[in-house]
Amino acid sequence: MVGRPASAALRPLPGEWWFSVWGIEKYVWPQSRGAGVTVAVLDSGVNASLPELAGVVLKGTDTTGRKGDGRQDFDDKEGGHGTGLSALIAGQGGGSTGYVGVAPDAKILPVHVTAEFGDSVGLYEAMASGIRFAVDHKAGVINISQGITSATWPDHCDPGVQDAIAYAVAHDVIVVASSGNEGNTTNWPELPGSCAGVVAVGGVDKSLRPWSGTQRQSYVAVAAPGVGPVVGETGRFAPHVTGTSLSAALVSAAIAIIRSHNPRMPARTVVQRLMATAYHPKAPAWNDQTGYGPIQITSAMNAQRYPVPADAPNPVYARFDEWQANRYGTAPRGTPEAAVRRSVHSRNTGGGAVSTTMAVVSIGGAIAVLAVVLVIVARRRAHRSRREFP
Predict the structure, then answer these.
(1) Which spans in the chain are helix H?
(2) What CATH number should be reported for the domain holding residue 180?
């Protein structure tokens, strides 16, 4: 791993409190800043011209039916969600804010997936296609800081999205998602966090206690800061934003650092170590708001200093293996790529059946608004929610 020269030293903003909590400047960055790892951000697109992201945004794609390469943020209502997440991950300083990301040497692969009414592709299809694009374009980790209620789905996941996640698992790519922001209200399960094989992230505040809105669900794996400043699509600085979108982005950045420092470490081991080395000062080790607890990057990235038993709990992949066994019968863990592709290509996701369901999309904010939408099986889509993002 080639580090950034000392002359290009970055200084996080005072409000980015996770830098001191994780000891990033002192303990993490001397070992890795995420070089050589691509983080796919499946969201509203990313403003690649923002100075805070200079040189880190690759050419991506748009899976909503629009023409584009992902390097435009379409979130004109709420300030630039995808751009803000990308700055959390790989912010370069500079610009009007000087915002610094946790993994500044990583690259961002922007994928616009947030379909709206009127788009030619629905949200589930756009998300599934976005996951596949990210895998095919060498992403080491995929960040999906959004959620749609999965209460009515078998196994709490749209089949097409689950197949795409299986494709990522088969290619050793880690999928990270926000757990949801309705823990103190409806608390419905939300996909893709509720899908098998996804690292669902809960939120904590500055005291490392659960953020009030973080989802209370059995699928929560770990936690990370869910309160803090972000920078928006136009460079606007928002000093106080809440939501598990932030949490997922910060875990994705941490995974980029871990994978950069341990390029031969399998995805399963990375995720297992995140959970095993997380901060949980008292029993029980797991709870439904923060999972195994807030992650600790230095512990997770240093396998020799912080060994983790091979049989340590790994519920993220244990659940995926169970789903895979049910899908493939007695198929062994790690279904070959060809088998995954055959399965997905043979699945019929079309049809003209129409059903009505409650769909909630919480694309990163603190408060989401429930919306009843008509879901067409061949072209499912949902409203984005209102949120407290810049």
Answers:
(1) 18-21, 81-90, 123-136, 159-170, 244-261, 267-276, 297-301, 315-328, 337-346
(2) 3.40.50.200
